Amino acid sequence: MTCVAIAGADYCVIAADTRLSVGYIIYTRDYSKICKLADKCVMASSGFQGDLKALQKNLAAKHLIYQHQHNKQMSCPAMAQLLSNTLYYKRFFPYFTFNILGGLDSDGKGCVFTYDAVGSYERVGYSAHGTGAGLIIPVLDNQLKSPSPLLLPAKDAVTPLLEMEAVDLVKDVFASATERDIYTGDKVEILVINASGIRHELMELRKD
Amino acid sequence: MFRNQYDTDVTTWSPAGRLFQVEYAMEAVKQGAAAVGLRSTSHVVLATVNKAASDLSSHQRKVFKIDDHIGVAIAGLTADGRVLSRYLRNECINHAFVYESPLPVSRLVVRLADKAQVCTQRSWKRPYGVGLLVAGLDETGAHLYYNCPSGNYFEYQAFAIGSRSQAAKTYMERRFEAFNNYSRDELIKDAIFAVRETLQGEKLTSSICTVAIVGIDEPFHMIDQKIIQEVIDSVEIKEDAAAADQAPAQDDDKSSEAAPMDI
What we know:
The complex is a heterodimer.
Chain A: E1 2-7, E2 11-17, E3 20-22, E4 25-28, E5 34-38, E6 41-47, H1 49-70, H2 76-89, E7 97-104, E8 110-115, E9 121-124, E10 126-130, H3 133-143, H4 163-180, E11 187-194, E12 197-204
Antiparallel strand pairs in A: 1-2, 1-10, 2-11, 3-4, 5-6, 6-7, 7-8, 8-9, 11-12
Helix pairs in contact in A: 1-2, 3-4
Chain B: H1 20-31, E1 35-39, E2 43-49, E3 63-67, E4 70-76, H2 78-99, H3 105-118, E5 130-138, E6 141-147, E7 153-155, E8 158-161, H4 165-173, H5 184-199, E9 209-215, E10 218-222, H6 225-241
Antiparallel strand pairs in B: 1-2, 1-8, 2-9, 3-4, 4-5, 5-6, 6-7, 9-10
């Protein structure tokens, strides 16, 4: 159970594996953990899938109300704040989900927001959550050539990589995580958001 | 209708068994700008006349999308209509959240009617001063309902509300039996025609007219102004060519026999 997102100059890549398991049992090899919340805003989560379903429905309903009131889709940063508030609302009975929000901001630049279970969030250049995150993040740190978040003055954390390179990197890190993490595998669902819309890709992973 | 001693409170009956405040609320609907609705077996069309308060202001919004499968057109106190639209949207969202399926139109209009009825039986409230034409599609097909400030609702093949709506009703009375078999475009054309009847000779342009449609495989949406203008133009060209031999304005039907669409 792993999800990853990478923000680029004019694109955003979000990916999550499709295995659903409890203990040593695989419930299904074909479960989507990614949800399109708005035109340019997609959420991927690891954690308790029951809470994820409820959270997705909650956000979709709130988005519909927003569209009725404002006559437009929510921007990614706006959805990010909404998600944070929704999560903190249940601070004392939390949604057991570890979310990553990805999309394009109002300037068309890629953005990734990473969350904990109770709504603490931050805009970052890339992120990973789930059982395979520990195996993936060090590789991304090394390969993405992103400016360090510790630099002063603060530099924009998006990767200078091209869209194709970022997608290939995502495929590689998932294949690697699948090797060692028993909860990650089967297939990886990759969504690429750019100015022309959302592209969908499914890649096979090891089934063991 | 004249002032009398039984019309101060909505909770006061008259000796003839009437609630005058409710009837006055229905008057408010009759004074509003016209709205028209037509239904076939697969589509429902709503059309409204959008009056602007002055040349400087924008036109009133009278058509609201409630959900992908339902929309409403209002006549009367548009503020009341806006508030009711918000209520209808919430009901649809909540139903879809719990049941993962669209709220059937008949259930929505019942909830709206019950909400209106409450205001006719509370001394601290007033009836909503707006009539709503609810157009929607669900598993049982295409539907057009009219919701009244009194809390009544009826289903119609075609209906018109607001000022000079009788002209539109007369126009549709002659044709409504064929509506079920109309194509999508014929329905739109007849809706625009019906709205034109209410203008009684005033020039119809796409800027004062809003048309919206919902159908099978077609979520509720407003029709582009350009397309409306094209339909209007094509109609006028035909009329000029036919040397305008038909009477442009219909006389209001003042006879007392109940026409199919009178309440």
